[in-house]
């Protein structure tokens, strides 16, 4: 499906041509307690290097267990009524390390410690010891598995090139912009293969655009556009204020958002619920589809559909419903599974309430 806003085509996944306000995930869904040590996951900074100690299943059985847990995540999304499903990022220790640590030039076996996005904390990151290159597909097998297990449109998420530069220690390039561009080249190769494997949407996760806005203005947009160069398919850029389980006080506005109008991405994914975002700034992205975060992940109370509907209407004052996709504020990785499912169902029902008035 293609919409046209102000003369600019906006690609949309082929859900149903007449359906307004489709729903999706930002990416992650809670991993089962039998698969991953959730307490250890919660206690540690999201890993950027390998963190095999998180898995409860022995290595010889891990892929089989991850397959089973991925199917559970898919079925939960389908039961809730989600339109564009993900694999729940079940196979990942964090949203970013599955792809980044698979690249040539990254040393994850001898990681470094650098300050994290959360003040006062440190994160373990891979060291860049050579030219960054993609030697082989990384998440293509994940897309193929997801495509084989649902008939609904599917989305695959992958770390963005700017955020990747903030989650490593560069000992080779000595130039962050150059690191970002080589990350972007590797991403471009992967994204092309993700679409070839059956993805309907590919999303770049770029939370560090918000955390490092001045640096992002220097080379963030250029790196994103390099990652998406020549790509055929619906693409998204997700930025947020951080996991609700980690960041309690969130600002009411983004430090880096209008700049994304200059990217070639079709969608911009943001959070509005927990931060009670001033949605007026969405008017600065007239050529983008907005993936609107309407689920508060800090509050473990499941919202009513009416609350969700009100959050949708708040954005509709600045963005027409034809350009809105609904999602949680951020990844649902840290939520209890029953709470996550309840919130997804409330989002679907809230969308139906608003859709019924249009």
Secondary-structure blueprint of this entry?
Elements: E1 2-5, E2 8-11, H1 38-43, H2 59-80, H3 97-100, E3 104-115, E4 122-133, H4 140-148, E5 155-159, H5 161-165, E6 169-170, H6 176-196, E7 201-205, H7 208-211, H8 213-227, E8 234-238, E9 267-271, E10 289-295, H9 305-316, E11 324-328, H10 337-355
Parallel strand pairs: 4-6, 5-7, 7-8, 8-9, 9-10, 10-11
Antiparallel strand pairs: 1-2, 3-4
Helix pairs in contact: 2-10, 6-8, 9-10
Describe the structure in your own words.
With 358 residues, the chain is α/β, with parallel strands linked by helices. 33% of the residues lie in helices and 18% in strands. The chain contains ten helices and eleven strands. It has helices at 38-43, 59-80, 97-100, 140-148, 161-165, 176-196, 208-211, 213-227, 305-316, 337-355, and strands at 2-5, 8-11, 104-115, 122-133, 155-159, 169-170, 201-205, 234-238, 267-271, 289-295, 324-328. The chain has a six-stranded parallel sheet. A three-stranded mixed sheet has the order 3-4-6. A hairpin with a 6-residue loop joins β3 and β4 (122-133). α6 packs parallel to α8 (213-227) and α9 (305-316) packs across α10. The longest helix is centred in the N-terminal third of the chain and has 22 residues, at 59-80. It starts with a strand and ends with a helix.
